[in-house]
Specification:
Distance between the termini: 11 Å
Strand order of the largest sheet: 2-1-3-4
Helix content: 25-40%
Number of helices: 2
Strand content: 25-35%
Number of strands: 4
Shape: globular
Mean pLDDT: 94
Low-confidence stretches: none
């Protein structure tokens, strides 16, 4: 399982998601707005950050934000 975090600078929940992955030794990739991606690359219904995906067995699925990751991990 790999966690993919789309975050932005100054986002507390984005930082907490990275810290949670570090604490639980989860394989993750952090992508930062403005450097690794732009807003037009995200689904139009995204209202908050982070946007977190799980990649498992070649399938990619969105799980939500930090709270959803915390419950899953």
């Amino acid at each position: 399982m790999k966690v993919i975090i789309y975050g932005k600078l100054g986002c507390n929940d984005c930082q907490k998601a990275k810290l949670l992955c570090d604490m639980r030794s989860l394989d993750y990739q952090y992508l930062q707005l403005g450097g690794d991606y732009s807003l037009d690359e995200l689904p139009s219904n995204v209202k908050s950050m982070p946007l977190i995906y799980i990649k498992e067995h070649g399938d990619l699925r969105v799980i939500g934000g930090y709270e959803e990751l915390r419950k899953l991990a």
